[in-house]
Amino acid sequence: MQVYHTKAGQIELFNTPADVNIEIEDFDRKVITEDFNQTVRQALSEHIGPSFLGKSLIFYATDSHADMVVRLPKEASDNVCCPVHDDTVNNITGASDRPSLLRGRYKNEQLPKTASDRDNRPCRRG
After folding, report:
1. Contact 36, 69 (CB under 8 A)
2. What DSSP designation does 1 have?
3. Residue 99's beta-bridge partner residues?
4. Helix (H, G, I), strand (E, B), or coil: what is residue 87?
């Protein structure tokens, strides 16, 4: 089995038993791939987007996941019809510059329509 370690930037090979037990509730936090997130984005696009009423808040697992969550809808809009305003989809996390200002804009202004924020559900450490 190949495992990519994002912090080290390396792929490690492991010999695994025939049966591998994975806790499904933690799977979405541990396995973050662009293909999976693209599939999720496509499904969400039927329910949320710049042309829909209301706003959407998408939670992410890591900062690089947040970047992907923001980038994919922007790329999809550029490829499908016309480019959307850059502020339409934003990352409003603590890693952002002035996160409280961005959260206030999300709450009180027209844009962003979609924002990503850190998933702060308690994590089990094994």
Report:
1. no
2. -
3. none
4. helix
Tens digit of each residue's pLDDT (9 = 90 or more) over 72-99: 877 777 666 666 777 888 888 777 788 8
DSSP 88: G
The radius of gyration computed from the CA coordinates of the chain, to the nearest angstrom, equals 17
Residue 125: its pLDDT value, please? 38
Q: How confident is the model at residue 126 (pLDDT cuts 50, 70, 90)?
A: very low
Domains of the chain: 34-118 (3.40.50.300)
Residue 56, judged by CB atoms within 10 A of its CB (0-12, 13-18, 19+), counts as middle
DSSP 20-78: ----HHHHHHH---HHHHHHHHHHHTTT-STTSSS-EEEEESSHHHHHHHHHHHHHHHH
